[in-house]
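Page 42, continued from yesterday. The earlier attempt failed because a stray header line got pasted into the input along with the sequence. Redoing it now with the clean sequence only.
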Amino acid sequence: MDLLYVKCLAELIGTMILILLGNGVCANVALKKTGGNNSGLIVIASGWAFAVYVAASITSPISGAHLNPALTIGLAFAGNFEWSMVVPYIISQMIGAFLGAVLMYVHYKDHFDATPDGPTKRGVFCTAPSIRNYPRNVLSEIIGTFVLVFFLLYFTSGEGLGSVGTVPVAILIWAIGVSLGGTTGYAINPARDLGPRIAHALLPIKDKGDSDWGYSWVPVIGPVIGGIIAGGLYVILQPYFSVV
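This time it went through. Structure tokens are written below.
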């Protein structure tokens, strides 16, 4: 079996699990008549941290557990990942994110039906800014993603989410969520936002409203820029790491 095929399949499955559990905690908190309704940001941040832990634990030995196009691009810019594998990885991550969102919807279908508010339903799938200010929103996504990618480059062998160990990565995601997540919902991952947003647009969700495509570019462009900046800075500083 082709090694790239196996790695891409792992990225697809890992990202699917990431979104199933990550968007699942959003559904549990936001939708009506769930056991976790209105339990707040700490629960959401914790759920996403554990989602990353689970997904990275499964896929790290196979693909490096990127699970994020911004991380894949950042690693390539840092010279730690082959450019020829970037597009296959990103396609796999996008498909996995879409499938994870579909599974999440199936799991919470009754609660989607019980929730009358369209924006709330959309918010389970994809991010939205607390205050819509596109330059500031993009900057928020750049900063959050930079922290993610630079940490992984600086403290690991630069292979992916699992190369430093899954517990530190989960703590990192939790820290980004509780510290920086209040502005844009900390997508910090184009697949995490775009794949589920496409699922929201295509699924027959009752009274779902629009998919807010006017904002959809922010959680794609911002994380990519953040990943590139992190990869570029790593290249500049990397010669000094060995002497520090």
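Notes: Residues 14 and 55 are 5 Å apart (CA to CA).
Reminder to self: strip header lines before submitting.
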